[in-house]
Amino acid sequence: xxxxxxxxxxxxxxxxxxxxxxxxxxxxxxxxxxxxxxxxxxxxxxxxxxxxxxxxxxxxxxxxx
Length: 65
Hints:
Number of helices: 3
Order of helices and strands: HEEHEH
Mean pLDDT: 92
Strand content: 15-25%
Distance between the termini: 19 Å
Radius of gyration: 15 Å
Strand order of the largest sheet: 1-2-3
Helix content: 25-40%
Number of strands: 3
Number of domains: 1
Structural class: alpha+beta
Shape: elongated
CATH class: Few Secondary Structures
């Protein structure tokens, strides 16, 4: 049986925690942040957990991580 190929961009964008949660960075952090309010800027610093429907897809794309 051949090995399953890992989707490399998925590995780079998502992290698996110790309790098997899948985390990703919040979007919109690159530029045009000076116009945002402080509350939004602070919330962009935190990683967010993925929804259960998307976790199943991510696990199939990253079989060995």
